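Listing S7. Sequence submitted for prediction.
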Amino acid sequence: MTLKTTLACAFIAIALSASAIAQDSPSAAGAKVYFINLKDGDTVSSPVVVKFGLVGMGVSPAGLQGDATAGTGHHHLLINTELTGSAIKEAIPMDDNHRHFGKGQTEATIALPAGTHTLQLVLADWTHVPHAPPVMSERIKIIVK
């Protein structure tokens, strides 16, 4: 087995182990995430500053070097998408519609084209898996002029 194959197998094993652990990350009773500076129906200019609010849990970094402390997580911003079905129990993808803030950021500046967009915050554990039960904001619509 080559070093590259060995490292790839080790990474997959670690990711699978972390995913199995993460699926049991409980959220704190009454925990909430919310938008501090935006509300449903707001008209904004791009780039959009988005400030993340959190009550009842703490913010911690993600990843293999991240913090697995109970009652903590990091923010994800869903843009024009939502997590449904089994996706709510899996690691949140990382792409233009699923923005990760794994360094523990509590705000972001995002460029959005003109038009109507939906935004939703989701708190996830150190492996990017939403807590159980999920800590998610309401989906809001904003209009970018």
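Caption to Listing S7: primary sequence and predicted structure tokens for the chain studied. The first helix runs from residue 3 to 22. The chain has one domain: 3-144.
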